[in-house]
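User: For documentation purposes, I need each entry recorded in a consistent format: the amino acid sequence on its own, followed directly by the corresponding structure tokens. There are two entries in this batch. Please keep commentary to a minimum and don't merge the entries.

Assistant: Recorded as requested. Entry 1:
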Amino acid sequence: MGQARRKLKIGTRGSKLALWQSEWIKAQILRVHPDLRVELVRIKTTGDKILDSPLSKIGGKGLFVKEIEEALFSGRVDLAVHSMKDVPVELPEGLVLCCYPKREEPRDALVSRGDILLEDLPARAKVGTSSLRRSAQILHIRPDLRIHSLRGNVDTRLRKLDQGEYDAIVLAGAGLKRLGLSRRITQYLDPLQVLPAIGQGALGVEVREDDHWVVELLSFLNHKPTELAVRAERAFLRRLEGGCQVPIAAHSALEHGGLVLTGMVAGLEGRKLIRDQETGKAERPEEIGLNLAEKLLSKGAEAILREIYGGHP
């Protein structure tokens, strides 16, 4: 390692979960490179500033990463730690995802008052989620439930549940586990019924493409099975041109040497839902994602997407 650089600055959002994730990355770096100084730089993103509207209403891409990417370009930070489900499929030119640490729990988790399971919630129970993907799939299973928008950090969402504003809420299982809140989970939602978001449970480290020192320094953090799975999921999403306004979900994992990708596209109310699976060679994840997207488009997803985009220009 050259003498010129002994300090590394990590760009991160300021939420408790984002800080946990960045502190974890910092600890891994210092374990392998104890002579480095690693500093966290907190950056407030657009998604953090606007908390009174559903993400699908705000529109745009990169709500939780744009300001951090600007800090990367300016040299204010050397790397950014993201939840992969927040990262747009198209990165700005000059930035790359250099590593994907081992994925945490990918499933969604239901937290309910009285620890009542999803299938046992009373009719018209009020369920909180900020995700159209979650609401569409839950309504597909339980059209009698009432879905209401829920924004804010994990603590805020749990507090609103505890205060009786909701009967149940749905959160990413990974976030609850990382924050030591597994005890709050009523049930993990079966991916056969509720598929997670693209990249859910996975972290991504974004750097400047030409910063070869940082790219090489962080290479030990990459977990190849996670990388392949997330690349397949993101290729699926890229072909469908999905964002926060569309209920699209996918999850991929290595099985018997191959990569299995399951994907879903749904209408906003959950009445229409198309789901399928594609298996292929693990070393060709983008091909698997593209093939699955084409399969869903041919089965009716194209009509669903056209209807949604028509209503949400």
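Entry 2:
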Amino acid sequence: MRVQAPFGRRRVAVTGSDDVGAYRVLHAADLDGPAPWPGQFYMLATVQRWGAGADERPYVPRALSFLGAAEGQLSFMFEDVGPGTRRLGELRAGDELWLTGPLGNGFEAPQDGRRAILAGGGVGIPPLAAWASALNARGVVSAALLGFRDAHHAEGARLMGAGASAEIATDDGSVGRRGLVTTLLESELQRDAHAVVYACGPPAMLEAVRALCAARGVPAQLALEAGMACGFGACFGCVVAVSDGGYVRVCVDGPVLDAGRLEAVPSH
């Protein structure tokens, strides 16, 4: 599903920020923007100091799925992995953002009485948390399977809220089951495969989810992560191959794509 974004970018105020384990959650007032649909994303840039070097060469805006949206307030979650996210992490209440969105296509509801299984890893939590909240509002109880590096990162599971009961796996076994989130998914599908899987996370995880669901004939919707420069499909920097031999742009045809359209999730 797609909610149409207003033309151009909007200047909005940051209303607060929080640390949740290894992640930063940024809150902003978007009083003039439409309510987004789970799985959609925004392009973010700071109004001040969005650049590096002596000439302050600007960074490319960062594409972030929204974590929550209510009463004109948006929330975003990210990890400090480079200069752009580091600058976003410096923002405090009263600072300002340039915001473009909501962009792209979001999730579609389960059909044929299928249950919803949400599988995510790390910073793949935001679209799944938004989707869990939307499903919960419809009376749909979803199962959440979340994978993290360690206990510090696993604190991000708290952001899923009350919309889904979460089972956790960590690489080092410090929280939940030791291993990969796809191990949890395999067990869940063995228990009951009459489901739709919704997944977001790193490419290797998404490819494992795609292959597992394809082997079992289980429909899946994947929220792909891709480097985006524009968000409008103009630069063709986020194309991925599809099984019919063509290509789609993640920013306009996704980021949520039917797993059946992909022969494989690209590794980068």
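Summary note for entry 2:
Residues 42 and 101 are 5 Å apart (CA to CA).
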